[in-house]
């Protein structure tokens, strides 16, 4: 029998109405739990009119980011660009001297960013699109956020090295047939190479690098110099290289093949952070938000760089991260042992 309340509403209708109300409450709660970005005062940022950015972002990409931001906001970016270790060295010297001349810093050293966060050096900030950055590539409170992912692998001149002779793993590089053909950067200049050397020396022992030394490997300053050596044919195999350079070299017509090692490719985030006490705090927030916005994140794949955001496709023709075996990196170990890693490397080479 169909029962009706005094108000004329059936029991079924009452249950349905209650369910709708409950769903509305749940939906409201979910929205409340959703990500709400920290605000950016763009008017205040424009009044400041400029900001200082220290970065290890590849030169052309860094210049393009600065130019695009200036065009969109009218805020000038004063750019200092060098290798990751060099950027950190200058920044730490200034901080230790009590000078706060920089507003935003982007490095290639997640370990150093974590250590500086513990010292209270950075401003917590979670801008728009913060929720689209993988948890492994950001601080949960926004003290630093990945700008991009650096893919570190091997690459070779495929027009000068036969396919059958290409190395397949990091350990293959110690084979005598590669003597006089190898080049890699210096971990005292680039923090990315520090991640690789710290990890591989721990996994395979320092004997691995002693064997590379016996193979007459060439040590150059940074990844740009690695690329130059291959393009000129002075060396034929990058024993560690930044894949975005190989991507650019291929676009220029050079026969450079990226090799993703069977024992693991490195995917190292490049953290961006706002410096506490910087002279232009509002412009710094606007710039940090810009760097994980659509303009910059979609620019990276077009330049052969993997974006930090999970919703952005890889560079055209490059594999998705999910298809690669990645080498785990112990950033705490790298941070605590960085000096000894650099020292031992210098002793060998």
Walk me through the topology.
Elements: H1 11-33, H2 42-48, E1 50-55, H3 59-73, E2 76-81, H4 84-96, E3 104-106, H5 110-118, E4 122-123, E5 145-157, E6 182-185, H6 191-204, H7 207-214, E7 218-220, H8 223-232, E8 237-242, H9 243-251, E9 256-259, E10 266-275, H10 281-291, H11 294-302, E11 306-307, H12 331-348
Parallel strand pairs: 1-2, 1-3, 6-7, 6-8
Antiparallel strand pairs: 3-10, 4-10, 5-8, 5-9, 5-10, 5-11
Helix pairs in contact: 2-10, 5-12, 6-12
Number of domains: 2
The first-level CATH class name of the largest domain: Alpha Beta
Provide the gyration radius in Å: 25 Å
The end-to-end span amounts to: 91 Å
- The CATH homologous superfamily of the largest domain is called Periplasmic binding protein-like II
Can you characterise this structure?
- The protein is of the alpha/beta class.
- The protein has two domains: 42-149 and 268-318, D-Maltodextrin-Binding Protein, domain 2; 151-266 and 331-348, 3-Layer(aba) Sandwich (D-Maltodextrin-Binding Protein, domain 2).
- It is 42% helix and 17% strand.
- It has helices at residues 11-33, 42-48, 59-73, 84-96, 110-118, 191-204, 207-214, 223-232, 243-251, 281-291, 294-302, 331-348; strands at 50-55, 76-81, 104-106, 122-123, 145-157, 182-185, 218-220, 237-242, 256-259, 266-275, 306-307.
- Strands 1, 2, 3, 4, 5, 6, 7, 8, 9, 10 and 11 form an eleven-stranded mixed β-sheet that branches.
- Helix 6 packs across helix 12.
- Residues 1-32 have low confidence and may be disordered.
């Amino acid at each position: 029998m169909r029962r009706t309340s005094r108000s004329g509403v059936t029991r079924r209708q009452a249950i349905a109405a209650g369910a709708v109300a409950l769903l509305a409450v749940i939906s409201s709660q979910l929205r409340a739990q959703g990500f709400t970005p920290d605000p950016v005062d763009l008017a205040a940022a424009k009044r400041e009119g400029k900001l200082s950015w220290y970065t290890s972002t590849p030169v052309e990409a860094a210049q393009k980011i600065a130019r695009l931001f200036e065009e969109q906001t009218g805020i000038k970016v004063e750019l200092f660009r060098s290798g990751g270790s060099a950027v950190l060295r200058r920044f730490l010297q200034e901080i230790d001297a009590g000078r706060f001349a920089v507003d935003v810093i982007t490095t290639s050293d997640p370990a150093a960013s974590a250590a500086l966060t513990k010292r209270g050096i950075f401003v917590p900030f979670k801008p728009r699109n913060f929720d689209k950055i993988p948890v492994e590539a950001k601080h949960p409170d926004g003290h630093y956020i990945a700008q991009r992912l650096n893919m570190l692998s091997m690459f070779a001149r495929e027009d000068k090295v036969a396919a059958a002779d290409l190395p397949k793993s990091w350990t293959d590089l110690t084979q005598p047939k590669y003597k006089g053909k190898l080049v890699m950067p210096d971990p005292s200049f680039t923090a990315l190479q520090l991640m690789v050397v710290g990890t591989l020396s721990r996994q395979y022992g320092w004997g691995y690098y002693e064997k590379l030394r016996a193979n007459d490997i060439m040590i150059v300053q940074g990844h740009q110099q690695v690329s130059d050596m291959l393009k000129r044919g002075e060396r034929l195999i990058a024993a560690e290289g930044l894949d975005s350079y190989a991507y650019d070299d291929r676009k220029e017509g050079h026969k450079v093949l990226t090799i993703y090692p069977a024992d693991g490719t490195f995917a190292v985030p490049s953290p961006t952070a706002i410096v506490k006490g910087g002279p232009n705090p509002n412009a710094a927030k606007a710039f940090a938000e810009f760097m994980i916005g659509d303009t910059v994140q979609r620019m990276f794949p077009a330049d052969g760089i993997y974006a930090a955001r999970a919703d952005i496709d890889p560079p055209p023709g490059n594999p998705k991260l999910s298809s690669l075996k990645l080498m785990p990196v112990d950033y705490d170990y790298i941070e605590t042992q960085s000096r000894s890693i650099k020292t031992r490397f210098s002793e060998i080479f």
